[in-house]
């Protein structure tokens, strides 16, 4: 690797150096300003008065991000590892909409994809210490996916039954114009959201709705419990603990020397 490539790589990929920190701070600022500009551009009054300035700023930021994207490819020995990586895809998507807007004005809505750049902050801030915990969460979700799938299927069945019952009880004159509409009510009620746009009027309907509301609290607790159990299992496997042979207390860190209850030396 040439000295130029090495220096660029150090600045872009190494946040521990002075210029690396400067680069990261500048990039974070550019990301937030870019996102903020998109938000302002969505306000009609601001867009009418500052449209030209926002348009210029958009192109400046896009140009800077494009240069950064090219430099990341240039300074790597194997550019394909970055180009086809998750963050490489995010970087590409974040600069693509502006060029598409210029070539195809009808694709203006694609500018919202630039919000994906905010995800890069997790890498820039070097939140590597949380990667392990994130992996544990993904392991827990993967391990509980089968149970959650069955749970969701059961909820779908309940929603269909509850919606059909409410359609039969209330009817179209009270807003339950169809079974799908009644199923929508069942979902809103079962999840305790309660928009109120569709509500029962009859006494029987209110009694049935009360039952569904109470059931909703139990329903919300089920997936939480499933994921929590799997997360605990994954955490235990990733963070093995030792037991005190003297008092039998569990849960000591594997590098603990003394029991936190009886003070005996842990072997």
Give a brief description.
This protein has 267 residues and is mainly α. The protein is 67% helix and 1% strand.
Helices and strands in order:
Layout lengths: L2 H11 L4 H24 L2 H31 L4 H5 L2 H18 L17 H4 L6 H13 L1 H26 L8 H12 L12 H36 L2 E2 L9 E2 L14
Antiparallel strand pairs: 1-2
Structural class: mainly alpha
CATH topology name of the largest domain:
Four Helix Bundle (Hemerythrin (Met), subunit A)
In total, the number of domains comes to 2
Helical content (DSSP H or I, runs of 4+): 55-70%
CATH architecture group name of the largest domain:
Up-down Bundle
Distance between the termini: 49 Å
Per the principal axes of the C-alpha atoms, what is the gross shape?
A: flat
Strand order of the largest sheet: 1-2
Largest sheet: 2 strands, antiparallel
Q: How large is the share of residues in beta strands?
A: under 5%
Describe the structure.
The chain is mainly α and 267 residues long. It folds into two domains: 3-125, Four Helix Bundle (Hemerythrin (Met), subunit A), CATH 1.20.120; 140-239, Helix Hairpins (Orthogonal Bundle). Helices cover 67% and strands 1% of the residues. Helix 1 packs across helix 2. Residues 119-130 have low confidence and may be disordered.
């Amino acid at each position: 690797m040439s000295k130029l490539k090495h220096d660029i790589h150090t600045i872009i990929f190494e946040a521990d150096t002075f210029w690396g920190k400067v680069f990261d701070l500048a990039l974070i600022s550019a990301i937030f300003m870019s996102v903020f500009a998109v938000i302002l551009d969505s306000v009609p009054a601001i867009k009418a008065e500052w449209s030209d300035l926002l348009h210029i700023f958009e192109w400046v930021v896009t140009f800077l991000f494009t240069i950064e994207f090219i430099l990341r490819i240039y300074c790597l020995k194997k550019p394909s590892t970055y180009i086809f990586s998750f963050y490489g895809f995010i970087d590409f998507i974040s600069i693509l909409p502006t060029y598409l807007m210029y070539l195809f004005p009808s694709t203006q809505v694609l500018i919202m994809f630039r919000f994906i750049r905010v995800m890069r902050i997790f890498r820039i801030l070097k939140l590597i210490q949380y990667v392990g915990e994130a992996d544990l969460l993904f392991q827990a979700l993967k391990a509980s996916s089968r149970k959650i799938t069955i749970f969701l299927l059961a909820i779908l069945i309940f929603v269909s039954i509850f919606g059909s019952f409410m359609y039969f009880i209330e009817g179209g004159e009270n807003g339950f114009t169809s079974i799908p509409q009644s199923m929508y009510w069942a979902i809103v009620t079962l999840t305790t959201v309660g928009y109120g746009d569709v509500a029962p009027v009859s006494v029987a309907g209110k009694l049935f709705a009360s039952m569904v509301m109470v059931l909703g609290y139990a329903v919300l607790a089920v997936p939480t419990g499933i994921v929590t159990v799997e997360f605990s299992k994954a955490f235990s496997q990733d963070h093995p603990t030792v037991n005190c042979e003297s008092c039998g207390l569990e849960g000591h860190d594997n590098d603990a020397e003394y029991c936190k209850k009886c003070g005996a030396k842990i072997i």
